Amino acid sequence: MTTTRRSASTGGGAGAPPSGQGPSGQESSSGDWRRGYRDVVRVGEFRALWVAHALSMTGSYLLNIAVALLVYHQTSSALAAGITMALTFLPQIIGGPLLSGLADLFPRRRVIVISDLTRAVLVAGIGIPGLPVWAIWVLVFCSTLPMVPFGAARAALMAEIVQGERYVAGSAIINITTQVGTLAGLVLGGGVVAAVGPNSAVMFNGLTFVASAAIIRFGVRYRPAPRDEREERPSLWRVTREGTRVVFGDARLRTLGLFAWLAGFYAIPYGLAGPLADEVGGGAMAAGLLMAGPSMGAIIGGFVLTRLINPESRMRLIGPLAVAASVPLLAWALHPPLWVMVGLLMLSGMTASYQFVANAAFVLCAPSKGRGLAFGLVAAGLQAVQGIGIALASLLVEVTGLHVVITVAGGLGVAGALLLASPWSRLSSEAIALMHTPPDADAPDGDQAPGPGPGTGRGTRPQ
Fold this sequence. Notes:
Blueprint (H helix, E strand, L loop, with lengths): L35 H6 L2 H32 L2 H9 L3 H10 L2 H4 L2 H19 L6 H12 L2 H15 L2 H33 L1 H22 L16 H13 L2 H11 L1 H4 L1 H4 L1 H7 L4 H25 L2 H6 L1 H9 L11 H14 L2 H12 L5 H30 L1 H33 L29
């Protein structure tokens, strides 16, 4: 994997076509960026990725709820149910640095299909009646691990299917779909389990992953692996070392990755939704509203940011919006009522939609051969900072109180974002240039995606 930093003058390595090209390579006006949504959904391979992602994501949320209820029904222990939920985060933290590298070692379509089919088998096993809790925990852990290579391969493969502004629009659609799925999971998950029972819900849930695998297998054409499969497979240490060098050796990737990790601050109210609801005399419904607030805001903010604001301004707004994402938390110093708290979290979610643009910029800036690994490393870090942040905040609440902890988290988030906004104001122009870089500009660095572009008629060997 190359670690050469590529400036705007040498190209972006994302296989990006000239800014005036449409999904099939035809010329179009460079000023029609508002057509990004319409253009990207016309690409059949993107639609396949989109639907497959929606199915896998829906399956994941239903699985989390169903398994937690399954364990709770067996044990009547809130602690056991909590451990079950924690096990859905740990695999991504532990497996991120290693398993995300699979997206750079093997054909990415194959990685996605195998990841989904593996999850389907393991998830079906969880639903077998009579399994002891320890066996359920083992299967939950193992069934979550394939999410790591799935996510890394999906992000890297999408950069080969659509480029430039269409990649940004496609990334926004994927992220908005995730937020809608979060809301649907919170609202519908419990009802599905109540209707068919936790065991049946878990077992039938495995079908969502089978359907996702089939859509990718028949809806996305074959592309060879970024690395030659005959090369020696790297060790865990080498993969972690190379991934760290790729991310932290490039100022653009480092800054964008740290922007993503700021979520560890402004996600803290989400993790404290239960205690916040109790403090204002609310119940499960109040906690659900607090947890849904950021997702509702992200849906609105993501649409406005990617649909109504031009690409150049959008990239430059990453810094200011990152600062604004933590500002609403400062209002907890005033002990706001429930409806104000929900509004503040919606506002935080709206401004935190900068993550949609930062995510797209990160993938565009990452070298093709290390794109999956770099994405997985930052994704694992994101899971870690959110988990550690919520755990630490829960501990400090026992000492200082809810409102103090959330207010301080907001202040730290603002300070961290300000430190990143300054360098990004200089680096954003490079990311903007990558959206308009011809694919041939990357050939000398060897970072160009090896597969031919859409519509060439090559690279169709079945795999």
